Amino acid sequence: MASTKAVLDELKAACPLKGPVNLQLSTTLTTNTIVEGRGTATAAVVIPGPGVDLRLHGLDFPLFPLPGYVDHRGRVVAECEPKEAAAAAREAQRGGAEALAIVGKFSQRNPSLEQAVLDAVHNGKLKFSHISVGHKAAPRLGFPRRVVTAHLNSQVAKAQRKFADAVESLGEGLGSVRILKADGGTMTLAQSRSLPIESILSGPAASTMAALALTSHQGKSMVVVDIGGTTTDLAVIVQGQPLYAREGAVIGGYPTAVPAILSRSIGLGGDSEIHIIDSEEGGTRFRIGPSRAGSPVCLGGTRPTPTDAVVALGRVSLGDRSRAVGALKELGARAGLSWEAAAERVVNAFVSQLCAAIHKLYGELEGQPVYTLAEFLETPHLRPEVITCLGTPAPAFMRPVGEALQLPLEILPHSASANAIGAAAARPTIGLTLYADTALRSLSIPEMGIFQEIERPALFDQRKARDRALGKLREYAREVGLGEPQDMDIVSEESFNIVRGFYTVGRIFHMHAQIRPSAQRITGEEGVR
Amino acid sequence: MKSVGLIFFPAFDWCITPDHPEREERLLYTRDQIEEEGLLDLPEFREYRPRLATDHELSRAHVFVPNIRAHLTESHRIAAGGAIAAADLVLRGTEKRACALVRPPGHHSMRFVHGARGFCLVNNEAVMVEHIRQQLGPQAKIAIVDTDVHHGDGTQDIYYNDPNVLHISLHQDGRTLYPGTGFMNERGGPGAFGLTVNVPLPPGTGDGGLLYVIENLVLPILKEWQPDIVVNGAGQDNHFTDPLANMEVTAQGYARLTELLQPDIVVLEGGYSVEGALPYVNLGILLALAGLDYSQVVEPDLERVKPRQAQRVTDHIAWLVDELGQMWAGRKGVDLEAHFGKGKFFERKRMVYYDTAGITETQNGKIRLCSSCAGWELVESRSDRYAYATVAVMLPWNACPGCRGEAEAAYQEQISEKKAKKVVFCDPERDKVLGCTN
What we know:
Radius of gyration of chain B: 21 Å
Radius of gyration of chain A: 26 Å
Oligomer: heterodimer
Number of domains of chain B: 2
Order of helices and strands of chain B: EHEHEHEEHEHEEHEHEHHHHEEEEHEE
CATH topology of the largest domain in chain B: Arginase, Chain A
Largest sheet of chain A: 6 strands, mixed
Helix content of chain A: 25-40%
Number of helices of chain A: 15
Number of strands of chain A: 24
Largest sheet of chain B: 8 strands, parallel
């Protein structure tokens, strides 16, 4: 926190601005809290109803199942007893849980059972440092991910609260404060207190947003390659829009429902280990990674790395070149090659592994299932027109990658501060899900806690559903302090006739409304500080 | 771990008519249930895309009148292509088992297609089975166990005289339900007698009866016949909530059936209780396919309806299984001359009604009675929609040289006689379908 304060002071000194400084923060706080297992002890009270045994999902935290059953259209089939709910929460507390998650199956269609448990906990005067409810933490379909998301949200809530308090205590000179989210958008500090989980994995999101902010190929489809020391991260931009992870972010091995920019991390970087493989034809070849060898020899390390290969070849100037050559001579000797040949082959191996990873990613994306004829027949063209890359060792490796994939290559400036640029360029995002069932006369927008009756179901049509979704999104944006939003879109929608006994008895509308993530353009030296 | 590849194509933008049972909504709740259960987050499951079946792939199983384009929508091609994609996952060893939840269904579609019957236009399973045989070769033995509540008359028609495809159909008795066929005495043509097994179940059959048939008839038959691939045409309309049939089967029953049958490939057929049955039955089937615990898959209506099977139904099924077991055991000793005559050909005439399309077709067919192979076949078909005839000359898989010569001559003769408007020649072993329009 002291460092944030120092940066803030420095900024104010450097900027000729008089007014307060607006802060956009990309933090690793929640990510690290989860990955390092330092979160608040949390238990989940779950209402699974019948179906797949939740234990099959291998969740390794305490679960307290309660009876109760909501079906796929949000009808309560069996209620949840308040007494049992309070008893479960008490037991969780006795087991050491300081924070709680309350999650029901299909709670996004009807949260009344989650609400009943919450009421029972409050009425029982049970104190928890944070309670997350499933329908707010993860309104999308996917009960196990909802359980995980609500649980992790409660785990990191206390840490985030402390952080938010500290940021606010910076006091004077502070303008608006926004936190970067995994989806490449930002949220307010207040939002980050109730849904801190959304700030996980903002690092990869930041580098994608940086690419969007800095690229000269606006609106094009591109693959973003961020070559680091240990890993290389790939992200995909289709016609100027980043692609999302289909189901949500995965963190620390936990699949969550947190909306996230799709990012594929491969164990291939400047500091990766180099393995000598005896090929079947008798020759030798190299394989890079996935583990890290340590610092390159040219920078004082002990084992040769891909960085040493490009330094030895004189394509990058970094550290002590003669040490890099020495390391390659030793590697070449083991493989029966001159150091020059060894260095070239290391670079070739790096390039071909990276190309293979890019092909594999696009292959998977193109093979993703779709559920309508329209989508099947008109699958958008994903293939990149440009390779955009970040990361210090990028050019030496990326030129041959560009040649191999026959794509123009763009090396972005300011690689070292890409994360900061991405965070600064990000704009607020917010989204909601509307599910309306005119036969049951029910309408829900779980993000806003709206569960209401449709007053005139016969007149509720697709246009009304869209208007409602967009209107509520505007309201929601104001409510959380994001002002008047622009770029609101219905990003996906479905509608179905409900037919019973050969008569249409109603319609189901299901749609997502969203402010799409976008990056403020940053151009030229002047734009970046 | 039993890995399961799922091909799911609910075709949310396709229907026969907006209020038809075969409509957009049909797999909506199944999708919701599968996604809400997080099924695809389990390591046992992976989802794949279907593909479009090609004209050639479709024509291996069907003769379309007047042509493919007159009937087909993309949804039919994707449903058949989904089944093919499912088969490929298993054949290539990508997955241990595969399940194609696609629509529309296909098992009422016969060799000749003048239009849709029983909501079906393309026999997804037959198109898939022919694809499998092209991969595995002419000796491949494939068993199709059709557990849709309606008789799989289309599949039966296509494989009636095929000794390498065993077709077992469990269905509600044809005297009480569409399509009104599938009786015990429909046992196969002269080249494959006994390899069509029909199990007409009485209305009111529940889990007990269905599983009794599987354990005491189907499994012993499969054990003896040793198929290379077992396909389950998984209709879900035996469910106690189905609006079109009268059975008492539950999701637990379907899951147990799948667990017992251990099919390599499951292809969805019918099932029109879109809310009360499909989400739960599909879930149960998928869990059972993966060898996972399905004991907690329970329909919301189960407690209220309490489906049960009457004693007389149980008794009738015991008799049925006993009878069919004896027929199976005795199939090789049957006097085929008594069934099919002593002549050179077994001839038959029949009428086929296309309920969905409202077409009546008349067929004159003959099968060569051959001691060296299943015998070549000629079918002349007319419908009340077009004045002309269409003729198909079909070689069986593993045709003997004699039959091959005769069939080729018959094809040439049909062309030169110009009596039929369209003549088709099917040669599965060389994967050729020739067509000639006069």
